[in-house]
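User: Second chain of the day. Same drill as before.
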Amino acid sequence: MNTIARLTIAASLAISAFGVSAASATEVTFYYPVAVGGPITKIIDGYAAEFTKAHPDITVKPVYTGSYQDSVVKAITAAKAGNAPDIAILLSTDMFTLIDNDLIEPIDTLAKSEADHEWLKAFYPAFMENSQTGGHTWGIPFQRSTIVQYWNKDAFKAAGLDPDKAPGSWDEMVAMGKTLTKRDDSGTVTQWGLEIPSSGFPYWLFQALTTQNGAILANPEGTKVAYNDPKVVESAQFFADLSRKYDVMPKGIIDWGTTPKDFFEGKTAMMWTTTGNLTNVRKNAKFAFGVAALPKKVRGGSPTGGGNIYIFKTGDKAKTAAALEFARFLSTPERAADWGIATGYVATRPDAWETEAMKKYVADFPAAAVARDQLKDAVAELSTHDNQRVTKALNDGLQAVLTGAKPAKDAMDQAQAEATRILSAYQH
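Assistant: Same format as last time:
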């Protein structure tokens, strides 16, 4: 029996079973973290329409919920009011918080067929580190990323550097940063060598430095952190030294949102940001640019980042089953490839990279494969119980170091004490 015939029979059965039109059958509310409008909403609306066309008994209703931070607050608030979304894309690091509030279903208990088991094993292991705990799978990787370095090849050439070679180590990054930093006659900097953002969620960019320095910030159970490990303190000092000692980066807090703009406008020759900015850079950089894995200290590496698909507890079996079907749909190899090409996020499963569309894309734009290739060195993004407060302790410490308000050791000791106090409730 062909697919269309199966769908027609399925639709007929759904209509006869409920005695209603297909249009009023199971509706799935889908929270997606983006402000209303723009190209991303068009893609998501397209996926929802495509899914409904293939599943006439299910209607997906996307709800655009703002930033990741806004989205998790809205999802928790709605769930506690008895109006939970059926499915949502929230940060992979929200996993422990959602579990502790008893808001999400362990997906492996819903997905029971042999095909389902294969599906849950299809994703890159680095992404599953922020998707599994306690023997269960709680999230399906969707828009996931690593941090990569971007460089302006024209600026490198003008400075006498090899335009095809990014810094491979911290020492090279500092040396190249000095060569690339330009000043006018009055001594005002017209082009910085480097920008590593430190607003919003500075812990994530900082975790790249701690990873490269051989430190792991939290245990897999999310109950302990190592903020004042000597390697972490050394990494915080280096982060501050990039501006205060080596003078290759602006002093103080560098804004996450404006860093790509600074790169496009030639205000910085190198930047660290998410691979999720890849399409943005490709579209807006009016110069030749490169993309590379992050530089090494004792090792290479980056934390993973981005959002997972979560299925919320609603008590409605039909909605839960429909949400699971939509999660499968969003994470097929073809859709993972399509989403990666459209946005720059890393296609989350190896077989997505074997699709014709992705092979053609990478052949035309090899930079797209950099973040994927860096996954072998990637670590789980910092994630703990009571995650927002625990990461805030680290963010506050980092901001104190970067602004010169506190020495690195004092700031990290204070961050450790605060995080340990918060996490004591979860240590059995």
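Residues 3-18 form the longest helix (16 residues).

User: Great, on to the next one.
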